């Protein structure tokens, strides 16, 4: 099993592929079933945001080394419209698409580290990590 | 991947067998809304045992299914949410409020038999 996966995101079908490949990588790296499910669910939310707001983008999942523990880094990147107000986007229940608005804040709760880089017109990159317990 | 819907007496049983795309979930929603009318069903069971991820879209669609079925005067119960999936749903902030859930198909059938007894 490769230590890194890259999944182009162009449709709702790719959301399923990204989370399945992400989970498979987690399991192969020895993460628990709970952690693998949390990361797979976070990937699903991030990939759906790409499809909803940017149409096209990419999910990258790779193993990383911390201090004496294994981790994974999930990168979700797109060249879409970007996020005008990141603080608002991270708030539970806020959505500009009619969704539940739980995707980004929920993904942050499921992961250990979470960072969004975005500017209107310049796309969005989310970098988020999960460490083995 | 279309979800098979089995008619069992006054109940409809939809068993999800593999990961579903958003389009699959929306198709399930309209199929159940139509069949509950066509078969005059009293209740719907959605078995999600095979789902290893329940994200916000899946959760929202299941809640919509339950609400639509309720407006048709029938009951809905979601069965088989896996422990890891339940854990992730709570962290996401999705708890399927107002939707009946049961451990598995057997429990779901027992719940519905009890619930729909008076109206049968």
Descriptive report:
The complex is a heterodimer of chains A (133) and B (120). Chain A has 133 residues and is of the alpha+beta class. Chain A has one domain: Histidine kinase-like ATPase, C-terminal domain (Heat Shock Protein 90, 2-Layer Sandwich). Chain A is 38% helix and 29% strand. Chain A is built from four helices and five strands. In chain A, strands 1-2-3-5-4 form a five-stranded antiparallel beta sheet, with helices on one face. The radius of gyration of chain A is 14 Å and the shape is globular. The two termini of chain A are 22 Å apart. Chain B has 120 residues and is of the alpha/beta class. In chain B, 45% of the residues lie in helices and 18% in strands. At the A-B interface, α1, α2 and α4 of A face α2 and α3 of B.
What is the H/E string of chain B? EEHEHEHEH
Task: Give the total of domains of chain A.
Answer: 1
Shape of chain B: globular
Quaternary status of these chains? heterodimer
| Fourth-tier CATH superfamily name of chain B | STAS domain
Radius of gyration of chain B: 13 Å
Distance between the termini of chain A: 22 Å
Low-confidence stretches of chain A: none
Query: Which structural category fits the helices and strands of chain A?
Result: alpha+beta
Give the ordered list of helices and strands of chain A: EHHEEHHEE
User: What's the tally of helices of chain B?
Assistant: 4
Question: What is the architecture of chain A at the second tier of CATH?
Answer: 2-Layer Sandwich
Q: Determine the number of helices of chain A (DSSP H or I, runs of at least 4 residues).
A: 4
- Would you identify the regions of chain B where 5 or more consecutive residues have pLDDT less than 50? none
Q: What is the residue-averaged pLDDT of chain A? A: 93
Number of domains of chain B: 1
Residue fraction in strands of chain B: 15-25%
């Amino acid at each position: 099993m490769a230590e890194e996966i890259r999944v182009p995101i162009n449709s709702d079908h790719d959301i399923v592929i990204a989370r399945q490949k992400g989970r498979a990588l987690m399991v192969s790296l020895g993460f628990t079933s709970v952690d693998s499910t949390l990361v797979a669910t976070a990937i699903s939310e991030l990939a759906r945001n790409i499809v909803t707001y940017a149409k096209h983008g990419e999910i990258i999942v790779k193993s990383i080394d911390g201090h004496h523990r294994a981790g994974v880094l999930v990168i979700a990147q797109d060249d879409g419209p970007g996020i005008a107000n990141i603080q608002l986007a991270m708030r539970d229940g806020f959505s500009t698409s009619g969704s539940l608005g739980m995707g980004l804040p929920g993904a942050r709760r499921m992961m250990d580290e979470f960072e969004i880089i975005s500017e209107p017109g310049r796309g969005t990159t989310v970098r988020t990590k999960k460490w083995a317990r | 991947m279309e979800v098979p819907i089995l008619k069992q007496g006054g109940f409809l049983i939809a068993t999800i067998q593999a990961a579903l795309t958003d389009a699959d979930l929306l198709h399930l929603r309209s199929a159940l809304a139509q069949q509950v009318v066509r078969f005059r069903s009293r209740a719907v069971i959605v078995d999600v045992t095979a789902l290893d991820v329940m994200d916000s879209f899946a959760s929202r669609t299941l809640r919509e299914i339950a609400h639509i079925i309720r407006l048709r005067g029938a009951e809905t119960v979601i069965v088989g949410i896996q422990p890891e999936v339940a854990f992730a749903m709570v962290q996401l902030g999705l708890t399927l409020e107002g939707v009946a859930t049961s451990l598995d198909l057997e429990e779901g059938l027992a719940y519905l038999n009890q619930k729909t007894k008076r109206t049968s």
